[in-house]
Amino acid sequence: MLSKKASVMQEEGLPQNKILKMLKIKLQSDLIYSSGKILSSMCTSPHNFTKQIYRIYLEKNLGDPILFPASAELEHEAIQMLGSLLSNPKASGSIVSGGTEANIIALWTARNIAKKDGGEVVVPVSAHYSFDKAADLLSLKLIKVKLNHRFQMDVKAAEEAITQRTVAIVGVAGTTGLGTVDPIPELSEIASANNIHLHVDAAFGGFVLPFLEELGYDALDFDFRLLGVGSITIDPHKMGLAPIPAGGILFRNKAMTEVISTRVPYLAGEGTSQSTLLGTRSGASAVAVWALLKHLGRAGYMAIVENCLRLTWKLVKGIRQIDGLDVVTEPTVNVVGIKSDRVDVRLVFQELRERGWAVSLFPGFIRIVIMPHTKPLHIRNLIEDMKRILEGLS
Ligand code: PLP
């Protein structure tokens, strides 16, 4: 709830303990992940280890690699580690503020590589709204393509949408709504055949999909192994457990990033250049990503994904046992869409909200994201509440 009284800056400052008390009261209405009620977010409580990292390295600024060359090197190493997770340790890129910035940088790069007037970008209708922002900023036109019956980008429609003006195709690997993965291998072939940049938005799926095969689920190709894939968004502040802000944008090679390189004329020495949108940016964020990737390793992340997927399927089973509810489609990752053929899901959504559950409403379905802060008890309670709600609405 926003206060109606305008806040003015006081002449004299207040003691820190008083401010801490004020904050406790003022921030009371914010939900906390540990409550188990947050099932609408693709972010989670950051890993405890990163709190320490932030405290120590808070002053570092990646916008000035002349002052902080060692932090810049750690960012580079973090990108290489993310690259190795995505089948390309030679990837180039940056730790950025999140998926939105990563997607903007990807389209900025694609536009500058293509050098076409009136550039168009072919995206699935399921693409995140950050692409609308990117298109507006970059004077690009989004050509939104329908989905197939499995809620993936329709490949034929994508191919037909390509014109002389197309500067990029976007495929999503873990959509915001249902967690589905577009047919990236086919899109990769189309992109290569037409010499068009293919950007894969794996902001959510990037930390999940690489582990599916080893965990016994159906594997899906989506990364740099596919030769047409030019860039990938992967967000450490989602399933990577890093503190906000931490996004990742990776390019197949360094040459791609040169097309958005901007010279910074005034830094010490010879000057330097940046291939990011932001100037001053958090070094602690990149150091925290580096530290977490080192600390958890593949095995640590795989265990986290395994738990989330186990709970996801527990939820699916529970939903299927409730008369009147079903899943929209079998989940690919830890995102579940719930639909009903008996009642208006908007009513179910409202009832869940009234019971304190933070869930999301998409057109025609309720979306649940099972993040690392979600525990079996929370799922049991949610299923019980849904059962009661359906009984009440019937
Ligand atoms: N891409 C996808 C697939 C997302 O789901 C999201 C956010 O949920 C984004 C991009 C944007 O990420 P951010 O909110 O970190 O900017």
How is this structure best described in words?
This protein has 394 residues and is an alpha/beta fold. It has 2 domains: 33-45 and 299-393, Aspartate Aminotransferase, domain 1, CATH 3.90.1150.10; 48-295, 3-Layer(aba) Sandwich (Aspartate Aminotransferase, domain 2). The chain is 39% helix and 15% strand. It is built from 11 helices and 13 strands. It has helices spanning 16-26, 48-57, 69-85, 99-114, 130-138, 155-161, 184-194, 254-258, 283-320, 345-354, 376-393; strands at 92-96, 120-124, 141-145, 166-172, 197-201, 229-233, 247-251, 262-264, 272-274, 325-327, 335-340, 360-362, 365-369. The protein has a 7-stranded mixed β-sheet with strand order 1-7-6-5-4-2-3, sandwiched between helices. Strands 10-11-13-12 form a 4-stranded antiparallel β-sheet, with helices on one face. A two-stranded antiparallel ribbon has the order 8-9. Strand 12 and strand 13 form a beta hairpin. Helix 2 (48-57) runs antiparallel to helix 9 (283-320), helix 3 (69-85) packs parallel to helix 9 and helix 10 (345-354) packs across helix 11 (376-393). The longest helix is centred in the C-terminal third of the chain and has 38 residues, at 283-320. The radius of gyration is 22 Å and the shape is globular. The relative contact order is 0.15. The site of pyridoxal-5'-phosphate has 14 residues, from helix 4.
